[in-house]
Amino acid sequence: MLNDANIMRIMEAAMSRNADFADIFIEKRSTSSVGLLNGKVIKAGAGCDSGVGIRLMAGTNVVYVYSNDNDAESLIKLAKEAADALKGGDKGMIKELQEKSFSTPCDIKIDPMSVKKSDNVDFLRRSSDLALSYDPMITQVAASYTASKRMFRVVNSEGLNKEEEQTRMRFSIETIATKGNEKQTGRIAPGSMRGYEFINEYPIDDKTRECCDTALRMVNAGYAPSGKMPVVLGNGFGGVIFHEACGHSLESTAVGIKSSCFTDMLGKQIASPIVSAYDNARIKGEWGSYYTDDEGNESSDLLLIENGILKNYLVDKLGGRRMNCNPTGCARRQDYTYAPTSRMSNTYIAKGNDDPKDIIADTEYGIYCSQMGGGSVDTTTGEFNFAVNEGYMIRNGKIEEPVRGATLIGKGAEILMNIDRVGNDLELAAGMCGSISGGVPVTVGQPTIRVSSILVGGREDEEA
Question: 158 and 255, same structural domain?
């Protein structure tokens, strides 16, 4: 990586015209991956990438440039070009560079990057072979594994000088059941910032059987009814609805330009009084964690909603300038080719007091969503729709027959207010989130919750 003397020369070039602030993001990343289809290796690879991003600010005007050429003279030239392109503002001062600090949110005993690809293949093939022999209707198994090590350093004109190392690993198993022309899937995709001991300790046989069972139940299921009804959302990845329908609307990327349905709502009730929610980037070893954000700020355990009251937004530096508030340590980016923006980390609804069994028993009629799929949301209005990957009818307080084809449709603000039961079984699940600063690892989560009324899209109407 660049030495301090050359970093400061780049900084001087960036601050030579109208910028009142500049930062330099230096990144090096290595990756290793393998993929199998029906137990056969279809891809395997390893890579290494490095580069530098330079950001200049004049008020809320921003210029961002980047390069994978780590030559100091080339980067100085690039910084000067960026300085010439930045409009407005008064030239800022460059403070003396602080002593570099280092952090890592990882919890590693066995470095995943040191593990042989053949070991990864053996692990995935074990699951594939089990699934393919589990039932004749399981016709396809896709399995993949990836590990990455990311080292980055952030230096800015205010003297900040921080470095962090992040090692992540994730694998996925997807089983497909076929019945005639119908295909349904079961899937697991855990991720971690732990070492390879996470793989060694994972109950892969049991989880593979669960995937098969899910696919088999869904391929034999009838279609879900449609209409407004109570919906019970299972714990873990059920939290993707909160992430999408509410979380994105709390990011300063939207709030700062007043395109969020939660703009100017701090201190106001936006959810049921039994709902509290957090964005906690400081859970050591968790998939979405980090201790230093991509602007060099210290991350936080941020209380978003307390007993239904909105307490905080997710704010990056540019959003803070637009909103006249301080950053909350949530600036993230996929890599050096993106400027950082406000993003979620480990975002979840806090556990409540209800036993999940009681939530089901107290629901006369509705749908239980065990696993959620993909969806979309409009942060301006909060309108969303999400597919239900694994769903069941609830009748007379009992989980009954499986149903497929269900879609949940609504507005984030309405759904939050309609949560009337919150379980005590909080669980987190790994995912990926895409936004204007690229794809970043995130964790979603929640306990079992009940929404008293939500529109379900299905194939036919059914009376309670």
Answer: no
